[in-house]
Amino acid sequence: MNAIHIFFRKIYDFACKCLQVLCLLTAVLLFAGGFLFTCYSTDMTSQQVLTRFDNPLQSLLGIALSAGFMVFVSYLADKMGARNTKAPEPCTVLTILVLFWYLAAGAAFVLYGKTVPAADAMSVYKAAQELAAGNTAVIQPTESYLSYYPQQVGLTAFFEVLIRILHLVPTGLPDYHFIKCLYVLLACAAILLQRGTVKLLWQDRRAELFYLIAAGFHLPFLMYTSFVYGEIPSFAALSAGLYFLCRLHCQRPSSRRRIVLCALAALFFLTFSVMLRKNNLILIIAVVIVTLLQGLRDRKKTLLVFALLCALGGIFILPSIQKIYELRAENVLRSGVPAISYLAMGMQEAPRANGWYNGFNFNTYRDTGMDTAKTAELSRRAIKERLETFQKDPAYAVDFYFRKHLSQWADGTYASRQATLATFGGRTDFFASLYEGKYSRFFIEYSNIYQNILYLGVLLYCIASFRRSYQNGLPEALGLIGVIGGLLFHTFWEANSRYILPYSLLLMPYCARGISLCADVSGRIVRTKFRNKTCRS
Known about the structure:
single chain, mainly alpha, two-stranded antiparallel ribbon, 22 helices
């Protein structure tokens, strides 16, 4: 073993230790915020985010009942499997039940929720409709939504392809109904892929059971299947990319051909996830860093090549699609609202919550005649003014970012009601109440308890991982690295609890593993005490 190899191994081990500390601190921060506070909206007109302090005893009771239910279900599944060896494996049975639940509930949301795209989602959808009809007028430098937000060209292209396929069999119904049906299927695919990832990482059947229970009870995820935007398809693509990447790292394929196929599949799906949702670049950065460190430690050039291709795919996928559209339309799009405008807006107060959308980025870009340089200069001035305000009143600065953090990470509904609020007709009484009536209160309380369990499970996993090395090295913690990146990013960027949904989904496998490890420790303690009592008697 030469000196360079030893150096890279030390760098890798140091990165693992640092990551364990960061993950533990992040888990403590998330659990403390979710356990002690709840953020929610009751007025769907203003959609103002309210913050309340939770009674710790009530939170503990909710956690105890929910955790007890999860352990009880896994216990029954184990007993059933032990009694009847000819019966299907418990994880298989539970997977079928969860998928059936998603299909049935998803169909109910499509039929009776009557959600229609609105705001940005409607703008992207309409642009895709125009392009699918052969009208390229939406590709132009002025009076074009895509010239304000060119990062949406990937999602627009995805919708255009879907709409063109749907038009092969005319139905007379709006295309977004069928897109919602597709999203239900993609949510099911994401669950299957994440369950596969849990199996690859830990070979822990109980963790698989806990994951399936967590997935089945993640009601905001289910509600988002009716949101015709990028969250569901991008997360399904991300889940596929991470699954194939885990196969590459944790279950070394037996042949060179399979290694190449796994690498290509991971590369394709990770790049595709960025095409549908640019914020997934945070995960791409995590993948590139982990793969580079893994390749340098193990002296595998294939991993270094994969990291390079992954970085290039994430960087160039959206500009490439934009260029294709510009060539097709024989016109151009502008560079769009500069990133610094989002940072400036993330430092400002807003009607819904601190750092949320208040129109600053859009209005400034529009008022300057879509001049990127002028918009960037005005944004820098706005940032300077806010920094001066924070410097003069540090207590206000701390309170501002504290509330901004809670408004995103302590909202167990992840703004699912707000995102799917728009309707093309009257909803049934049940769904109307779920959005704005008495059932909405139950939904908020339920989601809060669920989020507490989610964060607690992750905290247990991080505590267990802190005491020992990662079982599969850095690739095991890819989802957690993405969450840490998302936490930092959305602390400074435009805020919205909707943006946190994918991170909550990334946390589910770690929650399941954490509860499984805790159940194992508890079981050993109980068995030891029982044996000691038996010996004394």
